[in-house]
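Protein Record: Sequence and Backbone Structure Tokens
======================================================

Structure line: whole-number tokens from a learned vocabulary of local backbone shapes, matched to residues.

Purpose: to set a sequence beside its fold so the mapping can be learned.

___
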Amino acid sequence: MSRHSYSFVVPAYNDAEGLQRHFEYFFARPERIQLVIVDDCSEDDTQELVDTVEPPANVKITYHRQAINSGPAAARNKGLELTNGDYVMFLDADDLLADCFFDYIRLSPLMNDADFVLFKYHLAHDAEQRYSYNMHRVDNAFFSRIGDSGFPAWAFTVAELPSALNTVNFPWNKIYRGDFIRNANIRFPELRMHEDIPPHWYSFLRARRFGVLAWAPPLITHYETAEGGRATNYIGEQRLDVFPMLLELYEELYGHKFHELLLPEFDAFSTSLFDWMINALCAGNSDEEKIWRNRYREEIERFRARIETVNQSDEEKPLLAFWDP
């Protein structure tokens, strides 16, 4: 049995079938595993499933049911509070880890004192598809560019690899040292839109070093469907929360000792996000899309004006040194 323990935080909402797949996977593993299931007020048989499964001795299930439906961000934060493993990872209920996941993690820079590692994934659009060997375009470009750099256990500082900031802000493509993620004040803002952005960026900004498993195969399958009700397709008021969130992130970046290297990555990221909001999300000719296209443009201009205010300030805002080597 592995001398290290692993905690997996799984927000669950009406996906008992997905949880059953996780149980089948983890119950067959020899590692010491904690499955933290945070039930976001499911109306299916999620709780009954958890109550009736019989995990092996090396697997512990920690179950928590939210008092009210609060979304995946709140569920992940609560789940993180309940973790006790040496390593921590966030999973969605319908994700699937690769059979080789633990084999590559044991070779990863986590074993060389990195605070977390970033790895490749299969992005699938069909529930029957397990191995797509496809990622979002920006991630395909990033992993292709660095090749097998750092094989097998080299760890980077954010100054050495600032382009890592601009990988897609997913919660499930990283595994963390437990002491780092629990103590570096990396949390999900409890919002329904864009809540994955801050923990992704703060992970890189606050880590001493991180690893990139560019030399490893994809270690997880994540399913994305084109359903109209997905949050990605939402147009409306809730998306405005991204602007104060981005401003707070920019202020920390501006105070980072390597800010001259990092701010161009933020500019590229925010420009791409704003272009998507205006020219893709609100690209249609409906009255709703026209109204929100104009509203988002106004908010983008306000945001850029506030950024200029930060740039012109003489006040130094040093990065909180959670993990200053």
In short: The chain is about 40% helix and 15% strand. Residues 320-325 have pLDDT under 50 and may be disordered. Residues 101 and 219 are 5 Å apart (CA to CA).
